[in-house]
């Protein structure tokens, strides 16, 4: 998968992130740019999405002995309901998590609603301002932010609030510093409207941040978060991101048991 060129802002961590019209909880951070309410003329689109189409991720089924470890009792439509047997979700190895991710057959659109008001998608839908308006998107979290492509300026005049993270889709990239800021931004967005979380393809970087949000804000174990998203979209976070999510899962379990 493609990677993005990294950069650094003065006085900021090695992997900078950029935002506009952020909620007050993080508006004081460095690297904030405001653009949604700017009086400058609305910029013309620099990215042209391809004709809408569907594509499928086809993966082989895992053995029944592996599948028997899980209970897929959720519905196809997003639900905020708390699952009664949440504590019984097993802690899986990286290998087992990868098998879970590759189990089944799921179609991906340019954007899929994986939680009420939360859309997970690709860069094509992020560049389609007409479709964003149709979906009533009010916030965008871009996990593949680049100074050469899009950014807060692209959404001037739309009222969309933007948060960009310059993340590489590489197992060596540390996404964990952005788990809580991203979860806060998504939470704030859902209180105010609808959000699109995207990267280049919408299956690794952005999916990792959505999983972290469900784990942090909705107290889901990692396995449940994966199953929740996979009910609506195929995702394949890279192995490094999975390790970081496992570490988050362990930390949250310890915190809940304290």
TrEMBL record:
Record text on subunit structure and interactions? Interacts with HSF4.
Q: What class of enzyme is it?
A: hydrolase
Residues spanning the membrane:
none
- SUPFAM superfamilies the UniProt entry points to: (Phosphotyrosine protein) phosphatases II (SSF52799)
Instruction: Indicate whether Hydrolase appears among the record's keywords.
Output: yes
**Keywords for this entry?**
Cytoplasm, Golgi apparatus, Hydrolase, Nucleus, Protein phosphatase
Residues in domain Tyrosine specific protein phosphatases? 177-233
Q: Does the keyword Membrane apply?
A: no
Report any Pfam family annotated for this entry: DSPc
Q: Where in the cell is it found?
A: Cytoplasm; Golgi apparatus; Nucleus
The organism's superkingdom is given as Eukaryota
Q: EC number(s) for this protein?
A: 3.1.3.16, 3.1.3.48
Q: What is this protein called?
A: Dual specificity protein phosphatase 26
Q: Which reaction does it catalyse?
A: O-phospho-L-seryl-[protein] + H2O = L-seryl-[protein] + phosphate; O-phospho-L-threonyl-[protein] + H2O = L-threonyl-[protein] + phosphate
- Give an example GO biological process: negative regulation of MAPK cascade
Which CDD domains does the record match to this protein? Answer: DUSP26 (cd14578)
This protein's GO cellular component annotations are: cytoplasm; Golgi apparatus; nucleoplasm
Give the residues annotated as active site: 199 (phosphocysteine intermediate)
Residues covered by the Tyrosine-protein phosphatase domain: 109-254
Q: PROSITE patterns from the xrefs?
A: TYR_PHOSPHATASE_1 (PS00383), TYR_PHOSPHATASE_2 (PS50056), TYR_PHOSPHATASE_DUAL (PS50054)
What Gene Ontology molecular-function terms does this entry list?
Answer: MAP kinase phosphatase activity; p53 binding; protein serine/threonine phosphatase activity; protein tyrosine phosphatase activity; protein tyrosine/serine/threonine phosphatase activity; RNA polymerase II-specific DNA-binding transcription factor binding
The entry assigns this protein to a family as follows: Belongs to the protein-tyrosine phosphatase family. Non-receptor class dual specificity subfamily.
């Amino acid at each position: 998968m493609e990677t993005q060129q990294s950069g650094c802002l003065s006085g900021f961590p090695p992997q900078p992130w950029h935002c506009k019209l952020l909620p007050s909880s993080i508006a004081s951070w460095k690297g904030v740019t405001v653009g949604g309410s700017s009086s400058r003329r609305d910029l013309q689109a620099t990215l042209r999405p391809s004709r809408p189409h569907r594509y499928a991720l086809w993966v082989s089924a895992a053995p029944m002995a592996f599948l028997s470890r899980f209970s897929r009792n959720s519905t196809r439509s997003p639900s905020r309901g708390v699952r009664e047997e949440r504590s019984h979700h097993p802690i899986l190895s990286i290998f087992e998590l990868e098998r879970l991710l590759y189990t089944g057959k799921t179609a991906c659109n340019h954007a899929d609603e994986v939680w009420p008001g939360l859309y997970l998608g690709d860069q094509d839908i992020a560049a389609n301002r007409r479709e964003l308006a149709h979906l009533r998107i009010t916030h965008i979290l871009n996990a593949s932010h680049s100074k050469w492509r899009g950014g807060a300026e692209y959404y001037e005049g739309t009222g969309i609030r933007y948060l960009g993270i310059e993340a590489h889709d590489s197992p060596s990239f540390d996404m964990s510093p952005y788990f809580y800021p991203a979860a806060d931004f998504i939470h704030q967005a859902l209180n105010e409207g609808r959000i699109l979380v995207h990267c280049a393809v919408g299956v690794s970087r952005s999916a990792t941040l959505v999983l972290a949000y469900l784990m942090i804000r909705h107290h889901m174990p990692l396995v449940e978060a994966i199953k929740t998203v996979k009910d609506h979209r195929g995702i394949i976070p890279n192995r490094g991101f999975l390790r970081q999510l496992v570490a988050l899962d362990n930390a949250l379990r310890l915190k809940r048991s304290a």
